[in-house]
Amino acid sequence: MYEPRRAAGSLVVDEAVAPAVDAAFGRPRRAVRTWRDVVTDHTGPALMSLAAAATVGSIVLASNAAAVPAEAPLQSLTNTVDRTQQVNRSEVRVALVGDVPSVTVKRTQVVELQPTRTMYAKADLTVRAKADAAADKVSSLQAGAKLTVTPVTRNGFRLVQVKGKDAWVLDKSLSATKPKLAATASDGPAATRPVPGGSVLGLQPEAMVVYRAVMSRWAVPSVGGWRAHSLSVHQYGRAIDFMVYSDSKMGYAVRDFLVAHAKEFGVDHIIYRQQIWTPYSPYWRHMADRGSPTANHMDHVHVAVKNR
Predict the structure, then answer these.
(1) How many Cβ atoms from other residues are within 10 Å of residue 240's Cβ?
(2) What gap in Å lies between CA 149 and CA 160, rounded to an integer?
(3) Each residue's pLDDT tens digit in the chain (308 positions)?
């Protein structure tokens, strides 16, 4: 029987006869494993798992894509225009904005009102409620009276402010400058009557000037002057009562004379027939009822002068 050689205690088997030897001992010879075999054994299962997961993911994505409806492709503006025609850009622009609703902007007109100003009465004025000669009379103004006027005119009348209310006066009777009032026939007769000298009725020198000017022109029946218990300036000797009684013609003549010379006399105020006149409001205003004709100055002209 054949026996294999031994060298240095190890069994050396010839590669040519190795299969026969393994067969002789009753076992097959194990094949030698390469590095590819080892890699395949370890990575094969992992690659299979990844491939399976990728397959499942693609199936899910495909099902979701099928559930979403596809968007219609955008149609460009050029597709609606026949390329064989020449298109004006302005026409295309009008076509684009044609459906936009127009907006109308209402412009508010701003009217600048002219400021009011001061004018003066050139003569006695009748103040009326409307711009009409037949309209109701509101009040009357003396020549030289100062008025607050507006630029509004109508039918020859001008809109003015009297006592804070709208009224109308003749426009031609107004002056931009204060008129210089001269003595007129209404001033009464010339000074021809003798007047006593010195002080009378307890009047102060400034009041005596007024007394002499009036008494030298009119024969006033009675005159009152200083009164100790008067509430007016009578107690200071600067007020005079020219008692004309029922002679209203003389009363109005004396009143108008005092108004015409109010500046040179230094007049503070004048009262006659329940109306008052002052230099700072140079027109006649109605006064409240004081209870009797004398208290309402129906029978006398009251004049007070300033202390100068």
Answers:
(1) 26
(2) 4
(3) 555 555 444 444 455 545 554 555 555 555 556 666 665 666 666 677 776 777 766 666 666 655 555 555 555 544 544 554 555 565 555 455 455 555 565 565 544 445 568 898 887 788 999 999 889 888 888 777 888 999 999 999 999 988 888 999 999 889 888 776 554 445 567 888 888 777 889 999 999 999 999 999 999 999 999 998 887 899 999 999 999 999 999 999 999 999 999 999 999 999 999 999 999 989 999 999 999 999 999 999 999 999 87
Q: How far apart are CA 262 and CA 239, in angstroms?
A: 14
What element of type H or E holds 287? none
Nearest residue to 305 via CA among 264, 245, 252 = 264
257 closest CA partner among 218, 219, 283? 218
For the chain, domain boundaries: 117-175, 185-305
> How many other C-beta atoms can be found within 10 angstroms of the C-beta atom of residue 241?
22
Task: Return d(Cα 166, Cα 149) in angstroms, integer.
Answer: 10
* CATH code, residues 117-175: 2.30.30.40
- CB atoms near residue 113 (< 10 Å): 8
How far apart, in whole angstroms, are the C-alpha atoms of residue 228 and residue 235? 5
Residue 212 dihedral angles phi and psi, to the nearest 5°:
-65, -40
| Burial letters 224-238, b for 16+ CB under 10 A, else e | ebbeeeeeebbeebb
Rounded distance between C-alpha atoms, residue 263 and residue 91, angstroms: 83
Q: Could you tell me the pTM of the whole model?
A: 0.44
Amino acid (one-letter) located at 234 = H
To 10 degrees, the CA torsion angle through 78, 84, 86, 90?
-20
Length of the chain: 308
